[in-house]
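INFO  loader      accepted 1 record
INFO  loader      residues=193
INFO  predictor   begin
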Amino acid sequence: MQNKNVRISSEEVSKATHDALERRGVKVLDIAEIVYEMQVPYNKGLTIEHCTQSVERVLRKREVQHAVLVGIELDELAEKKMLSEPLQSIIENDEGLFGVDETIALGSVFTYGSIAVTTFGHLDKKKIGIIEKLDTKTGHGVHTFLDDLIGSIAACAASRIAHRMRDLEEEGETFADVPPVVLGPQAKSKEDL
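INFO  predictor   done
INFO  writer      dumping tokens
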């Protein structure tokens, strides 16, 4: 029986999300590199640090965290052959008509608007950076959900940067004028800067 009064802390869910990504060989920097490649042509002064902070902000959203945790869990269960058939074969082989992986990833993209949606579609087709390495059909292991989730996170982070660029333009500034920490999580102390 479930206890509706039990709440899982944001810190615990955030840590579990970061741990799951690390366990699967994905670093925040890997995702930030995709964001940088997508956004640097349009954003003067953009640095990899800006992109890293944008990825970290996206990873703070519960909807993103939940999607990552569910998707990675299903990939890992498929690797261990712990799913029932035919789902085991469908996920293990990244069946072409299986769209649940994209659907879960796309759910969090909607939070960041149409730029994120179109960027996600582009990344799903082009398989840039670590997304290409994770593609189950060309790489090792089962990453049916993870490659789409990384595309989703990168698309959201890129959208954040695109929207922030518009704000900066209106203020007569560029990313060269903004330290990366302004885009990232609020520092708890000077040491966090």
